[in-house]
Amino acid sequence: MIKPPLEALLERVDNKYALVIVAAKRARQIKEGALSVVDLDTRNPVTAALEEIAAGKIRYEMPKLGIK
């Protein structure tokens, strides 16, 4: 079973592709030393990033299309 559930994650992010990018970027930040904003018992940065997204602690912006 995936924790947090995919449905909970997709409520916070526009689509599954954006979810992958947001989670990967946040996991990289955590791995490089950024502190997690949720209390977890895991050392896995991907799990920490997904928990942060599910908790609504991570914000992101989609780039505007058509800007040159």
Give your account of this protein's structure.
The protein is an all-alpha fold and 68 residues long. It has one domain. It is built from three helices and no strands. The longest helix is centred in the middle third of the chain and has 16 residues, at 16-31. The model has no long low-confidence stretch (mean pLDDT 88).
Outline of this structure?
The chain has 68 residues and is mainly alpha-helical. The protein has one domain (6-54).
Number of domains: 1
How many runs of DSSP E, i.e. beta strands?
Answer: 0
Alpha plus pi helix count: 3
The class by helix and strand makeup works out as mainly alpha
Which radius of gyration do the C-alpha atoms yield? 12 Å
The residue fraction in helices comes out at: 40-55%
Euclidean distance between termini CA atoms:
43 Å
- Beta-strand level of the residues, as a percent range? under 5%
Could you give a short account of the major beta sheet?
none
Rounded mean pLDDT score = 88
Low-confidence blocks of residues:
none
Order of helices and strands: HHH
